[in-house]
Design brief:
mainly beta
């Protein structure tokens, strides 16, 4: 599965979820381009930027460390070309 290049954009659910304090976010890029991956609180405010760079196609993994944030529900959002997706995650201290 990982040897075949992705043919579509994909943002996976973080794992583990709920998490404390580390979680992993996986995504797939079928073509190179600028990628921005951010974490937002429930007010829609950006709390951290995980990725903001031009990336080559492929399967990507990013770790998120929330130890300095309060417990709660957060969202993470990816923007890559015309693709945008948002998912929820739960941080429990």
């Amino acid at each position: 599965y990982l040897l075949v290049p992705p043919t579509v954009y994909l943002l996976s659910q973080n794992y583990p979820n709920p998490f404390n304090p580390l979680t992993t976010i996986n995504y797939a890029l079928p073509s190179s381009g600028h990628v921005k991956l951010t974490v937002l609180n429930m007010l829609g405010q950006e709390v951290t930027e995980l990725v903001n760079e031009i990336q080559e196609p492929g399967y990507k993994t990013v770790s998120f460390d929330a130890r300095y944030l309060p417990s709660g529900v957060y969202t993470y959002r990816i923007s890559a070309g015309a693709f945008t997706d948002v998912k929820k995650m739960l941080f429990i201290k």
